[in-house]
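Why should sequence recovery work at all? Because a backbone constrains its sequence more than one might expect. Tight turns favour small or flexible residues, buried strands favour hydrophobic ones, and helices have their own preferences. The token representation captures these environments compactly. In the example below, the structure is given first.
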């Protein structure tokens, strides 16, 4: 299947990813947008995403992202990338409801097959890797390659996580042929932190607590702490992956207040613990080794509830 077959005769296309978009969502959505501009200039394509982290600005057409979700006549086609269920597309759901045809391109095991056509590869590293399979790979350009490379870098933790396959490396290699400045993309999208991000990272690690005989580690941040460190919930990347690397730990939990009474929880695990299963108990999901959920209540209650569920499964 090729993107040409997916488009059929659509004249207007709506593209979106998931709420609080990460490098894979932004890379896939903008990579596809730029590809459409290049090869299907007559198609009206619009991109809707919540505001991504500013560090993704180096991806071409970042400025085309619309975060206002204005009313629009029904699109001929809606394509959702990296979004495992309809709730994950957030306010873009209104375009989905009205769209004449819908397509879901994703790599989450927990995907609910919510669209008219669903292309879900649960063993693929990233939505960008899945998307690559739909493109004429000899007809990319440097901007598209950078966008897709960013998604792969982001979702594989720089070619580290388990879903990094020979196919992932092959795709990355092909993308490199378009002159991707790989060192810069990797630093920009993965390692570089602002001063404030570095400080909250250190603080969250310092605050971390071992539980269940050292087999679980957790750390929490209140809204007040985020304010004190001049950071927002978008500045917390890298914290839970570092917690997971603590020797002896099987499960890492990082929970923070998004608004009063709403807690965002991130889970990471080491083989063989399945955090997707735990996240799913609370309406969340993701992957076996990386999952997330939103929970109501206080940070303390949330952690106590989670520790009980995790201990049962250790
Ligand atoms: P995070 O901890 O936010 O980096 O997310 C880890 C993985 O879980 C990613 O693949 C997310 O797409 C997925 N995920 C995070 N939060 C949720 C949620 N509330 N519902 C479903 N999947 C989620
Ligand atoms: Mn994602
Ligand atoms: Mn992804």
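From this structural description, the recovered sequence reads:
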């Amino acid at each position: 299947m090729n993107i040409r077959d997916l488009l059929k005769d659509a004249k207007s296309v709506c593209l979106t990813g998931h709420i609080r978009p990460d490098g894979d969502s932004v890379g896939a959505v903008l990579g596809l947008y730029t590809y459409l501009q290049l090869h299907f200039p007559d198609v009206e394509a619009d991109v809707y995403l919540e505001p991504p982290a500013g560090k993704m600005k180096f991806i071409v057409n970042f400025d085309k992202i619309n975060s206002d979700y204005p009313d629009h006549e029904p699109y001929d086609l809606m394509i959702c990338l990296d979004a495992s269920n309809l709730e994950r597309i957030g306010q873009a759901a209104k375009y989905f409801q009205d769209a004449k045809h819908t397509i879901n391109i994703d790599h989450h095991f927990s995907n609910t097959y919510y669209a008219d056509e669903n292309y879900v590869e649960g063993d693929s590293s990233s939505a960008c890797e899945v998307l690559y399979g739909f493109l004429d790979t000899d007809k990319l350009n440097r901007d598209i390659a950078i966008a897709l490379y960013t998604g792969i870098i982001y979702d594989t933790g720089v070619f580290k996580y388990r879903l990094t396959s020979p196919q992932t490396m092959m795709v990355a290699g092909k993308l490199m042929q378009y002159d991707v400045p790989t060192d810069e993309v990797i630093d920009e999208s993965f390692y570089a932190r602002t001063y404030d991000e570095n400080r909250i990272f250190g603080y969250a690690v310092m605050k971390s607590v071992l539980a269940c005989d050292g087999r679980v580690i957790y750390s929490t941040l209140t809204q007040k702490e985020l304010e004190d460190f001049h950071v927002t919930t978008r500045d917390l990347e890298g914290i839970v992956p570092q917690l997971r690397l603590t020797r002896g730990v099987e499960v890492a939990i990082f929970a923070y207040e998004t608004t009063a009474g709403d807690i965002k929880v991130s889970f990471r695990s080491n083989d063989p613990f399945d955090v997707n299963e735990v996240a799913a108990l609370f309406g969340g999901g993701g992957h076996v080794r990386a999952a997330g959920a939103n929970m109501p209540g206080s940070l303390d209650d949330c952690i106590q509830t989670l520790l009980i569920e995790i201990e049962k499964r250790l």
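A few observations help interpret the result. Residues 18, 22, 24-25, 82 surround manganese (II) ion (ligand 2) (CB under 6 Å).
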